[in-house]
Amino acid sequence: MKIILLGSPGAGKGTHCKRIVEKYGVAHLSSGDILRRERLDGTELGKKAQDFMDAGELVPDDIVIEMMLGAIKKSGPAGYILDGFPRTVIQADRLDNALSRAGEKIDIVLNLRITDEVVVSRITGRRSCPKCGAVYHIENLKPKQEGICDYDGSQLIQRPDDKPEVVTRRLEAYREQTVAVVGYYERTHTVYHIDANEPLENIIADVFGKLDSLVASQTCGSD
Ligand code: AMP
Fold it and tell me: Helix crossing, 31-40 with 61-74: angle to 10°?
């Protein structure tokens, strides 16, 4: 199963991906996580990306496309869910071309829709583990011990790009470039819009319902 999950920063893409990965066994390919890992490892790619990321700007297309096509190639037979990629129409187009050259296609596009006020409160209250990437929230998802990661005991941080002034820039970047990606997929694929202002469990039920029907139709198709 090949899934694209769209949605603005803070729409909950990471949380939903985690649940989807647990249930369907697909690989989680998050462009943001991969970029953060490259930075931690001090690679050339990470160094090229860091200033854009800290300013809340998008990293240039060529860098991200090459990185994500590489990650897709390495993913296993169960498929994958793309999280945070594609973020521009150029990225979407280059992804489609690469897949069709390989005789493959995206099976489903999910789009999480959320209002800016909810996004700002979610992101600015977010705290992350710099080591394992676990994500917490100062009000809604507290660690067992304040400021400390439940999994590896690291000191939690606020990502530089989760600070309020940068969040505003990220939302602008989303409106300027990524809203057009939703339009791109509406023209070329079936897009399922999901109301991400709803409580988490309702959203998950909605997403699982769509993916279960897809799995059922793929199983029937292969009989
Ligand atoms: P995220 O964790 O998905 O919000 O991504 C964090 C940051 O990584 C973004 O604000 C961008 O600077 C960069 N980034 C992640 N994915 C992409 C992408 N597909 N295209 C360009 N920049 C990206």
Answer: 100
pLDDT tens digits along 97-146 = 999 999 999 999 999 999 888 888 888 999 999 998 888 999 888 999 99
In DSSP terms, 6 is beta-bridged to 111
Return the active site residues: 13, 87, 126, 159, 170
- Extended beta strands in the chain, E state: 2-7, 27-30, 80-83, 108-113, 126-128, 135-137, 191-195
Ligand 1 atom, smallest distance to 85 CA = 19
Atom of ligand 1 nearest to the CA of 161: 10
The per-residue pLDDT for 221 is 57
Where exactly are the structural domains of the chain?
2-114+159-222
Domain 2-114+159-222: give its CATH architecture: 3-Layer(aba) Sandwich (3.40)
